[in-house]
Predict the 3D structure of the following.
Amino acid sequence: MNRVEPIVQGIEQDIPALMLAMGRRARAAAARLAIASAERKHAALVGAAQAIDARRADILAANRLDMERAVEKGMTKAFQDRLLLNQARLDNIIEALRTIAELPDPVGAVIAEWDRPNGLHIERVRTPLGVIGVIYESRPNVTADAGALCLKSGNAVVLRGGSDSTHSSRTLVECLRQGLGQAGLPEDGVQLVPVTDRAAVGEMLKGLAGNIDVIVPRGGKSLVARVQSEARVPVFAHLEGLVHVYIDRSADLEKAVGVTLNAKMRRTGICGAAETLLVHRDVAQSHLPPIVAALVAEGCEIRGDAAVMALIPEAIPAAEQDWKTEYEDAIIAVRIVENLEEAIAHIEHYSSHHTEAIIAEDPGAVEKFFNEIDSAILVHNASTQFADGGEFGFGGEIGIATGKMHARGPVGVEQLTSFKYRVRGDGQVRP
């Protein structure tokens, strides 16, 4: 039997029993949330945003505890950046909750409707998924985004955040639950697993005796691989962000420099950060040196192929592994390609199918890139760091789904619903 010290004060916990109880409470809450009015859900989200605003000092104090531990453990700067909360990031969390609150309620929305020759009227209608399990690493904002998006879409959620964000996530969940309670909705609609033992993840992957309907993993390759390998319920896979930027022969130089710099260096630790830069040979001499100069000035390390090494004195040789690596750091792999076809072939070979960008003024090149590359998000003349649910107008996201079943790209409120059919008749019988 697995026994661990719980995050909260109290006696040791029997993890299977603890998780099963959470699943049952989530299922009961989901039944109520599925039929909750749009007004109550709106009130819950607004109340949660107000609670976070009122408890800024508590949340930042909790985050300092998490940050101190991260520093003591020698976590990377990129990891610490993902973990950090400050006033500006709290502003963003609060704004995300308020934006989600104002989104149209997806539950009950009629997606399509039609009449049959026999007089039957058929509607396809959005309905909640039920109970969503979210397993993620140490990004406290995911706690708020996931809780809010699930609430808005009429789902209950069981959150299992990384142990490194324990204090931050717990305080944010308290605010979400406060909003639910004030709106007359079940606080168990949002639950945070109160133990750090990995056995809790195993119980979630088993489905908590049928009480979890879908798992959303958000984290590194090892986490996602475990989830996909062990899960007995459907998974919305969020794979690594092995993101490419391609500079076409028709690229505007100013756009190429500005977009590449932002795509790589705005925040190096997020999944939308560029990791590989591909440059058309025809503009390598004119475009690559200023792009590299801008990157190096911001502290970025350049790893290049032989052609890049000949042009860029600062570059160090790129190995095969560099084309396969999500650095999440100030490092970028650079390759000069003969043409657009070679760029597409490189991306299709190495991509994690997350996000890819083309910088080009030639509409034909853009259409070819968009049509032939099979990634969840494709971007033209803009930073790959726009690969984010908030930037898409979703208010937030649980993650970027890179699979092809059900949800793909930013997972927002609509992606957290399924549908059912309503068939209306007037006495028809089938011959």
About this structure: Residues 3-238+411-422 form a domain with the Aldehyde Dehydrogenase; Chain A, domain 1 fold (CATH 3.40.605.10). The two ends are 58 Å apart (CA to CA).
